[in-house]
Design the sequence.
């Protein structure tokens, strides 16, 4: 073999663990047959013998000997005088096999051939990589921080595969340094061109579900089933669990003594507050459990409209709504109901939108964000707590409260 660069291509790829010997031989033969077609117009009268173990190959062209001056197809026929230069005893009508040297293909063809070979190998690698990670979608994966960018962290696994953890798939409190190991689930694998893009997520509900499988043996063994997971990443999550074995307390098994079992999950998620709830097909009871830690007085449900009006004592309202409105929002997502909270014993109240003449719309919107839609709901709150939970200044909140109090003093 005259072309050393091509031999180096063999040794470059023949030990690649993603490519078995049969596949490599097939790729090499395909690449060379394409080169032969370009040079001679066809390739079906050529034999290609590939030896990837040694890093070489042989190409033989098969032609029929014809009398001098009767060659019509120079690719398939050879004149008697030319044939006898190869072997002096050839006769008309016999088959001649002649080795084709790489140099016969021309320098340009050799360079194109090498590039084509590398391209085919990479294409094969990318196809294998895509299939490998497509099978891992939804599974927990660990990789090391390689590069930190503004919109994403680039991770590398033990095989050197690149995995992307976008900013919006990171928990708000996440902070990683180069060289640190990161856990998440493989959320998606996309082919962009020929190269697969592997996306990891730490915010998907599936990540929390898989952590339960890893950390809690009864979940892993199927004795406890996770029915649904809803999250506000880094803030709060609700997990509905069930068991078909009456002897097992699914909530107790998941939480553990004094929270011992769930502690590692909470820590992994940046101290995300996790409520584990017993699932039930009784929707009224399920809503009651989902609004925990608030204690509910009564519920009025519309099963067709999927709405629930929940009555609570005034001191329980803030617990039901939760910080930032997370508790009531997650309870709604978990149960599939739109939940409205009402205060027990409150005969009259006024919605905040009735005060648009005196309170600006954006201020009312700030209160609504945390689940406060009525005058008395705001008046029951502590000013310092409202400053912390909203983007409003203390003076603005006090002004709003003065306006609302005046409504009830008249």
Sequence:
């Amino acid at each position: 073999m005259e072309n050393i660069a091509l031999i180096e291509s063999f040794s470059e790829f023949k030990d690649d663990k993603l490519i078995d010997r049969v596949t490599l031989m097939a790729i090499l033969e395909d690449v060379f047959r394409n080169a032969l077609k370009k040079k001679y117009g066809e390739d079906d009268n050529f034999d290609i013998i590939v030896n990837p173990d040694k890093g070489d190959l042989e190409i033989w062209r098969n032609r029929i000997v014809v009398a001098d001056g009767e060659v019509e197809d120079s690719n398939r026929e050879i004149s008697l005088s030319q044939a006898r230069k190869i072997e002096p005893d050839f006769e008309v009508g016999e088959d001649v096999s002649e080795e084709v040297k790489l140099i016969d293909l021309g320098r340009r063809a050799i360079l194109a051939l090498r590039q084509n070979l590398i391209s085919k190998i990479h294409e094969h690698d990318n196809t294998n990589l895509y299939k490998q990670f497509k099978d891992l979608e939804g599974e927990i994966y660990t990789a090391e921080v390689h590069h930190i960018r503004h919109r994403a962290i680039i991770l590398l696994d033990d095989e050197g595969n690149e995995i992307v953890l976008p900013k919006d798939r990171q928990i708000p409190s996440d902070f990683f340094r180069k060289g640190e190991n990161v856990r998440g689930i493989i959320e998606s694998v996309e082919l962009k061109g020929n190269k697969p893009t592997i996306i990891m997520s730490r915010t998907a509900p599936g990540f929390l579900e898989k952590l339960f499988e890893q950390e809690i043996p009864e979940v892993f063994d199927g004795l406890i089933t996770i029915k649904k997971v809803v999250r506000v990443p880094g803030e709060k999550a609700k997990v509905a669990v069930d068991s078909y074995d009456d002897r097992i307390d699914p909530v107790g098994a998941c939480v553990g003594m004094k929270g011992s079992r769930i502690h590692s999950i909470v820590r992994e998620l940046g101290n995300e507050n996790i409520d584990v709830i017993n699932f039930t097909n009784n929707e009224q009871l399920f809503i009651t459990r989902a609004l925990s830690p608030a204690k509910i007085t009564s519920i009025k449900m519309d099963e067709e409209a999927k709405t629930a009006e929940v009555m609570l004592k005034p001191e329980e309202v803030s617990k039901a709504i939760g910080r930032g409105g997370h508790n009531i929002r997650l309870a709604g997502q978990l149960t599939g109901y739109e939940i409205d909270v009402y205060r027990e014993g409150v005969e009259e109240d006024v919605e905040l939108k009735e005060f648009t003449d005196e309170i600006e719309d954006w201020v009312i919107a700030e209160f609504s964000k945390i689940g406060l839609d009525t005058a008395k709901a705001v008046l029951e709150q502590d000013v310092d707590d409202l400053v912390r939970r909203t983007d409003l200044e203390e003076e603005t909140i006090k002004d709003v409260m003065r306006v609302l109090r005046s409504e009830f003093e008249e």
In short: Residues 1-5 have pLDDT under 50 and may be disordered.
